[in-house]
Amino acid sequence: MAHLTKLTDTYTLANGVEIPIVGFGTWQTPSGEVAEKSVMDAIAAGYRHIDTAAIYGNEESVGSGIKKSGINRHDLFLTTKLWNNRRDYKSALGGIDESLQKLGTDYVDLYLIHWGNPKATRDHWQEANAETWRAMEDILKSGKARAIGVSNFRVKHLEELFKTATTTPMVNQMFLNPSDMQEEVTQFDTKHGILNEAYSPLGTGKIFGIEALKKIADRYNKSVAQVVLRWSLQHDFLPLPKSVHKERIEENAQLFDFELSHHDMELIDGLHGAAGLADDPDTVGF
Hints:
The protein is of the alpha/beta class and 286 residues long. It has helices at residues 33-44, 59-69, 89-103, 125-142, 155-162, 183-191, 211-220, 224-234, 246-251, 262-269; strands spanning 10-12, 18-20, 24-25, 49-51, 77-82, 110-113, 148-151, 171-175, 195-199, 238-239. The strands form 2 sheets. The chain has an 8-stranded parallel sheet with strand order 3-4-5-6-7-8-9-10. It has a two-stranded antiparallel sheet with strand order 1-2. β5, α3 (89-103) and β6 (110-113) form a beta-alpha-beta unit. α1 packs across α2, α3 crosses α4 (125-142) and α7 (211-220) crosses α8 (224-234). The longest helix has 18 residues, at 125-142. It is globular, with a radius of gyration of 18 Å.
């Protein structure tokens, strides 16, 4: 594990771009004042990495929150994602332009394909992914994204993509927490220089009901959320905790004054299935 001391420490992506080790997630954060204020609160709390997506419907509010925060755009790492309705070359190029317009910026730091096998292209997913990735590579070359990657891709989707890709994805963002470590894909990613990003690092809240985690948190005098986010960092994952409450946003950033023991890491690793599993990208209904 890298020596992590603060929220703005970075991992280095395969193309040399530095990405802050904790991001602020905005999935399920309603657009308008709620999203805007939560982004402003996150930036005030020290986050320099904000994650959104076209399908979240809050890109305009996230962009507005960034502007109102007063932070220099270049001091922030911003991610958005291409939705399933734009899964060919031309549509994908239109997707980044639409997102940039809504976010009020001329580039994102990271652009991701949101799902590995959407319903609409399931009968030709290999070709759809190849064409979409060709567009992603051109988006990277154009400077509209500083790095590109995928989300919810399993090993078979990546292996297929490698057959035509000229650039390997730099990130794979997925449902990743103690309840589902997705070991096959995280190990594959690491082997190929792909950073594992964790959305729902707190299991969409379900992990808070796990007694074993409460006991560990009590021992460290930390919250369950802090323990699980620290666990994520000690696995070299990049967690994207989401909250709309200022005190939780601040609490989720306090991860650097303790370290989980090897024994406690193993205990947490053993919680598979305790709070749900990742959706299968080959069977999702969208």
